Amino acid sequence: MSVRARTKWWTSPLGGPVLACLVLAFGFAGPAAAAGAYGNCQVSGQKGQYHLTPVVPGQLTVEVTLPAPGWYNGDTPATIKDGFEYCMGADIAWRAGLDKLVIVNVAWPQLIGGHTRNFDLALAEASITEARKKVVDFSTPYFSSDIGLLVKSGTKVDSANAKNLRIGVHQGTTGAAFVTDVLKPTKEVKVYPNVPGMIAALQAGEIDAVADDTAYVLAYAAKSNGKLDVPGQYHTGETYGAVYPKGSPNEAVFDRIIQSLSDDGTLKALAIVYLAKAWGADPTKVPYFTP
Predict the structure, then answer these.
(1) 215: enclosing H helix or E strand
(2) Which residues make up the CATH 3.40.190.10 domain(s) of the chain?
(3) Is the torsion defined by CA of 200, 206, 209, 213 positive or negative?
């Protein structure tokens, strides 16, 4: 979550034959669990190839901050059956030989501030920053993201007038830091404790734009039935990483699993299956603004 590439599908646009090959690879990359073992996810690779000691025996406990359309399809842990990060978690659990995936919804400031306990890792669109490394540990990067602007459809926005918008940001995110420290708009920046409240403020006309990860705001635009749009984004070069409790003994093993998911094409395939559908747009086609 800025706070949450360059959203570029891991530096390479996917199209036609490439997309088809990746989907095939995703479906037949090795022994797979029956549908339903981890929600709707079809996992791949060798079960139990990697060994670690989870906080709860036999299960992978993953912290999230909901809602996160595309990443977790559902508004509560009980309703989530798939999504990019959910199925990424399923693949991690499978390769670690764990039969159960448990999702725990927590507040973003608590998660990124290192105040939560009794979890194995968080998959929550968390951008890796030096400041955050002081209180939590991060995995090897698994996704890249820039900062996009979400506005009501028809709102005219460009590099010149973006600074004059009333912009809303999510508390404690890199999007919030970017707006206040780099963009520096002429009007007061509105800070919201959660994303639904921020989106509601935009729809009610209390703010003119929302600044958050491009991937994140594209998903909200796609769900709006044409009422919201992402006219542009800012290059930040940020990457997402799994969040580990500081000093977790499982970090090296998780890093190897996540790297294996990248190397064998699983993460790219998950992006095609879940993020492309949720976004409804190619993030590489969103124009770039200059701060």
Answers:
(1) helix 214-223
(2) 16-143+238-285, 147-236
(3) negative
The helix/strand/coil state of 166 is: coil
Low-confidence ranges of the chain (pLDDT < 70): 1-36
pTM of this prediction exceeds 0.85: no
For residue 129, give the nearest of 106, 142, 112, 147 by alpha carbon: 112
Torsion sign over Cα 283, 285, 287, 291: positive
Q: Report phi then psi at 279, rounded to 5.
A: -75, -40
Cα of 114 vs its chain's centroid, Å: 18
Report in angstroms the alpha-carbon separations of 258 from 93, 266, 267: 11, 10, 9
Which uninterrupted H or E stretch holds 270? helix 266-270
Cα–Cα distance for residue pair 126/139, rounded to 1 Å: 10
What are the tokens at 205? 């006309």
Per-residue pLDDT tens digits for 201-247: 999 999 999 999 998 899 899 889 999 999 999 999 889 999 999 99
- At the fourth CATH level, which superfamily is domain 147-236? Periplasmic binding protein-like II (3.40.190.10)
Q: Please, what CATH class does the domain formed by 16-143+238-285 belong to?
A: alpha beta
